Amino acid sequence: MTTQDRPVVCISYLASAELWSVPKFPAVNHGAEIRATEMSIAADGPMVAAVLAALEVPTLLVANDFGSDEAGRRVGHWLQQHGVGATAVASTDYATRRVVVVSDGDHTRTWFAYLPGVADALERVDLSSIATASFVYLDAYQLIEAAAIRVIRTVRAHGQRLFVNLGGIPLSDALRHELAGYSNLLIQTNIDDDDHVEAPSVARRLLEWTCADWVIVTTGRYGALAASHSQLLTTSAVPVEVRHTHCAGAAFSGGLLYGLHAGMPMRRSLMLASASGALRCVRDQSAPLPSLHDLESLVTLLARPASN
Question: Where does the Carbohydrate kinase PfkB domain lie (predicted)?
Fold first, then answer.
């Protein structure tokens, strides 16, 4: 079995996501009109798996189970619709966990997560699929840090390539300890648009604290960078009319992993990632995820020299 025949294993929590759009966040003790609602998925790992499935990469989502309630039926339909194979199953004894994401007219987001028992469930999931993975994608959020540490130890035991998504949180001492000395590693994080000038220093610190091959930092409308111990690569954000930003970072990760899984150099993979993140922002939640043709067409269009 070649590397490209082996699956990318994505490990994260699984929940139903409800997206609310308001014109402006209200002041304390005041309200706001909800202009639109959409249903989607959380967290990033399920969306990464769906992006990869749309790009015809063998993928497996390892996550907590969900319920057989209405929210759970939506989750199950979403997984089936996007061709995501998952260890998670519907259970009559389990209520589907939920996340509400509220965004305003400036695409600033605030989210509220109802995830009781998820951390414990993830600490018990079967990790045997890691042994045959080409890549392991891991959401290393603080909420599920204990489960993430278990995954890291398993990945290290098998020597697999590990892609750790910090989701904008600092690298904790516990994660830093577990990742120490492991070079078969990529780390992705994000910072706010207004802090984009700090991206190189964020990448340098993560490189100093770990032996990662690459650190990738996304900065919203200011694009992204990828830094190794010898290179610093940047890509501009694709200029699009942003409809929403839910899971844009996950779509970016999926595009990046597609390129790396296919053996492409980091610069090309970074461009595909930027295109994937941008197309996620312009399509509604029920639209198909981008195909490889969609991504390559956008990259080609951006690479054309401007005409006078």
Answer: 64-282
Mean pLDDT of 28-40: 94
Confirm if 199 and 227 have CB atoms less than 8 A apart.
no
Q: Give the count of beta carbons closer than 10 Å to the beta carbon of residue 133.
A: 25
Q: How far is CA 216 from the centre of its chain?
A: 12
Supply the DSSP string of 26-41, one letter for each residue: PPTT------EEEEEE
Work out whether the CA dihedral 17, 18, 19, 23 comes out positive or negative: negative
Distance separating the N- and C-terminal Cα atoms of the chain: 50
Residue 23, domain member (yes or no): no
Q: Is residue 103 part of a domain?
A: no
Owning domain of residue 65: 3-13+44-87+119-302
Contacts of 176 (CB under 8 A, 6+ apart): 209, 210
pLDDT higher than 80, residue 266: yes
- Retrieve residue 253's tokens: 């990760």
Evaluate whether residue 277 is within a structural domain: yes
Domain count, the chain: 1
129-156 residue pLDDT tens: 999 999 999 999 999 999 999 999 999 9
DSSP single-letter state for residue 221: G
- 140 - beta bridge partners? none
Q: Tell me the C-alpha to C-alpha distance, in Å, between residue 238 and each of 89, 111, 127, 188, 235.
A: 37, 25, 36, 19, 9
The alpha helices in the chain, defined as continuous H runs, are 44-54, 70-81, 118-122, 145-158, 173-179, 199-209, 248-261, 266-282, 292-303
How far is the C-alpha of 225 from the C-alpha of 219, rounded, in Å? 8
Note the pLDDT of residue 224: 95
CATH value at residue 61: 3.40.1190.20
pLDDT tens for each residue of 181-214 = 999 999 999 999 889 999 999 999 999 999 999 9
pTM for the full model? 0.94
Task: Give dist(CA 244, CA 275) in Å, integer.
Answer: 15
The C-alpha angle 119, 121, 123, rounded to 5 degrees, equals: 75
